[in-house]
Amino acid sequence: MDILHFEFMRNALMAGLLASLICGIIGTLVVVNRIVFISGGIAHASYGGVGLAFFLGLPVLPVTTAFTLCAALTMALVTLRARERADTVIGVIWAAGMALGIILLDLTPGYNVDLMSYLFGSILAVPRSDLWIMAGLACVVTGLVLTFYRGFLVMGFDEEFARSRGVPVDMLYFLLISMVGLSVVMIIRVVGLILVIALLTIPPFIAERRTRSLGSMMLLSTLLSGFFSVSGLALSYLADITSGASIIAVASVCFFISFLLPQKQA
Length: 266
Description:
mainly alpha, ABC transporter involved in vitamin B12 uptake, BtuC, 13 helices
């Protein structure tokens, strides 16, 4: 509990819990709808937004959010209109976003950006102002999922059946991809670009093996994400190691332990 005497640790804990809420909800939809590769493309393409923000001298979070949403919607459009070439286009956007970010950071005058903080997270440096933005994004994403819960439920388990029942699958798909983009921007501050997919997929995967419904899967995934975040922060404080990597290390250990435990009954 001594670590809570430091403001930066309190901010880090709050950032981790906010990201955990999003990981539990959106990560579940990512796993159920099998769009992990798209999520990885969005995460890496968002680096272009980071570079653009520094190059223009603008706040990182809003610029990265806007850039990531553009990249996410482009990927969504491609996967709906040209499924046979979707993996290629996503790979190109993935690489182009990373390259653009690095080039813009190199061209940024008079500022030496710490690339490691964006690749592996900078949760200990999250300011209070960013916490309010993260809380707002979390409320928006949570509200949208609750509003369209039934549509996401049907779409995730049987897309063709959803279309036959009049569910607006295309609209829900664009909405889901947009929320993935918003979530990625939040989680980047916690674990970084390279590790963001692990935090989005490990808790839902463990939860899927222990639950019978989408709602309970989201709830358990959120609790697991919170546990991973708090435990990882504590580990990083005690061992003096990178926080983002510590969070994923805890999650990875629990991932492998989950295989040794009994699975849910069919």
